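TA notes, week 10

Several of you asked for a full example with nothing omitted. So below is the full record: structure tokens for the whole chain, then the designed sequence directly under it. When grading your own attempts, check the secondary structure regions first.
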């Protein structure tokens, strides 16, 4: 489900153009916006023509705590208007131009596109770039999804359990750079805080039954199954009690030895219940997963670009056994396995479903953020490996994708989701001032 947002809407105009026609068009747009899912429309009903109107509109939008503002150039208008609004309500903008109406008596009626041009030029020359534009009768829903992403990160409470995995220096983040870029602070917890957390006995039985329903558990012992269920309860309760939106977990090397099992299978189950969890203490990947989910992606999967076949032009998107249990292809047997950590590494094992995919990563280098993303398709394959994985073919050659990853130094985890979120992610990058690789 997409994240709920509050959308501010204003319509700018000038009485030297056909403002009456613009007002009628604006009314139709507002009716259309009311049909959008997961959007609360906070519209300034009257046309904004004068500076005093813009100041009043800004106050109304500020009071409504909007997440983004669609600024419609109903006609050409004063250049002051959008600047006065942006000064008081610093939220992402959609500069929205309307298609020109048929000429009436040889006079241009709206001149709306010129108004968009004026606004964009004033903003850019003021050092403001968190906007995109459209010339259309309907709103850009990719922009709405990008606003959902910015709102999701700004409101998120993200935790890290332990630290990044041993030796994974490339997963480090600059926490104050995160705050500066996304308004986000990271909360740190020790592994023992979850290990020692209370687990309700009834909930343990509920989770144990879920595991039996979703997986063939014949490959693990009854005590291991109980331990996975117990950890599922502890993680979920810990996340809920601390109000966390996402949690990055240092899942090795201490976890299996210190707790008795690795967390992979528990994480697979919880992620299928819409809990955002990232392996190996990868905060940046957790943030990317939150972005994907805000735009409506179902249960993101943290994947490695594990193997490539340059001749046949595909890759294996794999991880040790933590993909959300609901992403199984339904053809292979989904299993719980103990193939590493001396028999303590209880993991999920299945081939992931086929379909259109988007993989992406918000990746930081010394506090500077970049966006890597690639769309493609998950292809059918036999279950040949332990862990959770998909065979993927991308919309450009495998060698080009690999070159981009390797030479840009992108970290070795991505958020992989089903669907195409490419345009929304590109707009999010622009609104956030992030380099696109």
């Amino acid at each position: 489900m997409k994240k709920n947002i509050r959308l501010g809407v204003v319509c700018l105009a000038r009485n030297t153009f056909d403002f009456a026609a613009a007002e009628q068009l604006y009314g139709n747009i507002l009716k259309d916006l009311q049909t959008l899912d997961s959007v609360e429309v906070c519209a300034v009903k009257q046309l904004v023509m004068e500076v005093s109107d813009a100041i009043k509109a800004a106050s109304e939008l500020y009071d409504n705590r909007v997440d983004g503002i669609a600024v419609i150039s109903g006609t050409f208008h004063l250049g002051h208007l959008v600047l006065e609004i942006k000064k008081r309500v610093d939220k992402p903008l959609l500069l929205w131009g309307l298609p020109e109406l048929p000429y009436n008596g040889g006079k241009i009626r709206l001149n709306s596109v010129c108004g968009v041009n004026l606004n964009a030029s004033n903003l850019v020359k003021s050092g403001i770039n968190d906007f995109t534009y459209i010339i259309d009768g309907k709103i850009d829903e990719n922009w709405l999804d990008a606003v959902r992403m910015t709102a999701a990160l700004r409101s998120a409470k993200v935790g890290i359990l332990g630290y990044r995995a041993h030796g994974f220096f490339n997963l480090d983040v600059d926490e104050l750079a995160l705050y500066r870029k996304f308004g986000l602070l990271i909360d740190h917890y020790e592994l023992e805080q979850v290990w020692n957390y209370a687990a309700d006995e009834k909930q343990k039985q509920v989770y144990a039954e879920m595991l039996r329903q979703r997986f063939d558990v014949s490959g693990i012992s009854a005590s291991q199954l109980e331990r996975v269920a117990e950890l599922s309860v502890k993680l979920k309760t810990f996340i809920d009690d601390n109000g966390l939106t996402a949690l990055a977990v240092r899942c090795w090397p201490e976890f299996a030895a210190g707790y008795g099992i690795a967390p992979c299978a528990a994480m697979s189950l919880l992620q299928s219940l819409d809990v955002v969890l990232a392996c190996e203490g990868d905060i940046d990947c957790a943030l990317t997963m939150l972005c994907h989910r805000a735009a409506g992606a179902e249960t993101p999967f943290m994947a490695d670009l594990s193997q490539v076949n340059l001749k046949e032009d595909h890759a294996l998107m794999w991880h040790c056994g933590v993909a959300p249990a609901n992403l199984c292809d339904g053809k292979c047997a989904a299993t719980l396995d103990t193939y590493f950590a001396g028999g303590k590494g209880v993991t999920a094992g299945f081939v992931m479903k086929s379909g259109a995919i988007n993989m992406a990563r918000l990746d930081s280098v010394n506090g500077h953020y970049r966006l890597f993303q690639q769309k493609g398709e998950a292809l059918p394959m036999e279950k040949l490996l332990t862990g959770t994985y998909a065979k993927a073919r991308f919309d450009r050659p495998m060698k080009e994708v690999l070159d981009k990853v390797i030479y840009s130094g992108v970290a070795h985890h991505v958020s992989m989701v089903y669907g195409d979120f490419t345009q929304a992610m590109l707009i999010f990058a622009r609104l956030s001032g992030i380099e696109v690789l």
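Residues 31 and 136 are 15 Å apart (CA to CA). Use that as a sanity check on your answer.
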